[in-house]
Design a protein that fits this description.
The protein is an alpha+beta fold. It has 2 domains: 180 residues, Transferase(Phosphotransferase) domain 1 (Transferase(Phosphotransferase), domain 1); 139 residues, Phosphorylase Kinase, domain 1 (2-Layer Sandwich). The chain is 29% helix and 15% strand. The protein has 10 helices and 15 strands. The protein has an 8-stranded mixed beta sheet, with helices on both faces. A 3-stranded antiparallel beta sheet has the order 9-11-12. A two-stranded antiparallel sheet has the order 10-13. Helix 5 runs antiparallel to helix 7 and helix 7 runs antiparallel to helix 10. It is globular. It comes from Panicum virgatum (Blackwell switchgrass). This is non-specific serine/threonine protein kinase. GO terms for molecular function: ATP binding; protein serine/threonine kinase activity. Its EC number is 2.7.11.1.
Length: 360
C-alpha cells in the first residue's frame, strides 16, 4: 500500500484536505465553575494531586458518576467547556453522515462548527454496544489531555455527558497523512520532527509523570494547516513513575506493524515501546510502504530494513525522494528510525536523545 505518493508535484503539498481525529471523553459536574457567553460551564483551573488515582480508576465501576464529576472538577486548563448535547447536535447537523470524518473503536468522529464559528472534531461514544473499554478510554483522555500543553499534542476543548452520552470535543485538524498524496522531504521531515518533540514531551517533560502513548502510528497523527503534527488518541496511555520505569500490563493493545514486539513478548511497557512506534512511523513516512508489507525476504518493513546498507536503504526510500538533494539527510533519518526499532530496549535511543541526532 502506498501511503504518500501521487503524480502531483511538491507544489501541491498544501492542498491536502480531510481529517482523521480520534478522541473520547465524558461529561461531569464541576467544583469551581462559571458560565461562558453561550451558557456553557467553563471549568476553572483547580487541579491538585488527584492524578495519582489513575491506578485506582482502572479497577473501578465505570458507571460511577462521582468519579467523572471529580475528573471534570479537576480539569486544570482554563477554557475546558462542558457542552450541552443540543449544542453539539446543532454543530454537526444532528450528527449527520455528511459531517462524519472518521470512525474508531470508541465510535464515530464528526466535524462540527460551534455557534461562535469555531471548527471542532467531536468524538461520540457508540451507543450500542456500550463497553467498559470505551468508558476507560473516555476517562483516560479526560484525565490526561487537558493537562498537556505542547504544540504537538492535540487539545481537548470540552466534553458532554448528558444522560448516557460520552462525547469529547477536540480542536479540529484539517489535514492528515492520506494515501495517494505526495509530500516533499521538508514536509515529511517536519512531521517526523514534530512527532519526536511531542513524544519527548510526553516521556520526559509532562508534569503528570512519564506518559507512554501506547499507539504511535500515522493514523494517530493529525496535521494543522501548516502541516504541523499533533499526537492524538490517548485511550491506551500508561503513566509511569519515571522515564526509566516499566510496567506490567494486563492486556496487549496496539496496532500491528507499530506495536513493540518486546511488549507483546514480555507483557511490559516502557517509554521504549513508544520509541518503537515512532521508528516504525518514521520508516513508513520515508518509504511509503505499509509496515506489514512482506518483502521478497519474507519479512515486514522493519525486519527487511534492519541492517540495511546504503544501497538497500536507497531502494527502500520512496522513489520520489531518491534524487532529492537532501538524500544524505534522508538516509541519516532512516538510520535513526532503524535504531528506534531495535529488538532490545537497551539498544533504542530515548526520545530525549533525538536532539543529539538533530532530529528534534
Amino acid at each position: 500500500m502506498t501511503i504518500f505518493r501521487t503524480q502531483e508535484s511538491a507544489s501541491n503539498d498544501n492542498d491536502i484536505k480531510s481529517v482523521e481525529v480520534r478522541a473520547e471523553m465524558e461529561p461531569f459536574t464541576v467544583e469551581d465553575q462559571q458560565q461562558d457567553g453561550n451558557g456553557n460551564i467553563v471549568v476553572s483551573p483547580t487541579w491538585k494531586h488527584w492524578f495519582r488515582r489513575l491506578v485506582q480508576w482502572r479497577h473501578r465501576d465505570p458507571s460511577t458518576s462521582q468519579f467523572i464529576r471529580q475528573l471534570i472538577g479537576h480539569a486544570q486548563l482554563g477554557g475546558f467547556t462542558i457542552f450541552k448535547f443540543s449544542q453539539l447536535a446543532a454543530s454537526t447537523n444532528n450528527f449527520s453522515y455528511q459531517n462524519k470524518i472518521g470512525e474508531g473503536s470508541f465510535g464515530p468522529v464528526y466535524k462540527g462548527v460551534l455557534a461562535n464559528g469555531v471548527h471542532v472534531a467531536i468524538k461520540k461514544r457508540r451507543v450500542f454496544p456500550e463497553s467498559i473499554q470505551s468508558d476507560v478510554q473516555f476517562e483516560n483522555e479526560l484525565q490526561i489531555i487537558p493537562k498537556l500543553q505542547h504544540a504537538n499534542v492535540i487539545k481537548l476543548l470540552g466534553c458532554c455527558t448528558e444522560g448516557n452520552e460520552r462525547i469529547l470535543v477536540y480542536e479540529y485538524m484539517p489535514k492528515r497523512l492520506k494515501a495517494g498524496v505526495f509530500l516533499s522531504w521538508p514536509l515529511r521531515c517536519r512531521i517526523i520532527e514534530g512527532i519526536a518533540q511531542g513524544a519527548a514531551y510526553l516521556h520526559h517533560h509532562s508534569r503528570l509523570g512519564s506518559l507512554v502513548h501506547g499507539d504511535l502510528k500515522p493514523g494517530n497523527i493529525l496535521l494543522d494547516c501548516d502541516m504541523n503534527p499533533r499526537i492524538s488518541d490517548f485511550g491506551l496511555v500508561e503513566v509511569l513513575e519515571s522515564e526509566e520505569d516499566e510496567k506490567e500490563i494486563d492486556a496487549i493493545s496496539g496496532t500491528p506493524g507499530y506495536i513493540d514486539p518486546l511488549l507483546v513478548e514480555i507483557q511490559r511497557i516502557s517509554t521504549k515501546s513508544d520509541v518503537y512506534g515512532f521508528g516504525a512511523t518514521s520508516l513508513v513516512i520515508m518509504t511509503a510502504h505499509d509496515p506489514l508489507m512482506e518483502f521478497d525476504t519474507g519479512r515486514s518493513l522493519v525486519g527487511h530494513s534492519n541492517g540495511a546498507d546504503r544501497r538497500r536503504a536507497m531502494e527502500l526510500i520512496d522513489a520520489s525522494l531518491r534524487n532529492d538533494p537532501q538524500i544524505n539527510e534522508i538516509l541519516r533519518c532512516m538510520h535513526i528510525a532503524l535504531l528506534c526499532v531495535q529488538p532490545d530496549w537497551a539498544d533504542r535511543p530515548t526520545m530525549s536523545e533525538m536532539p543529539e541526532y538533530h532530529l528534534a
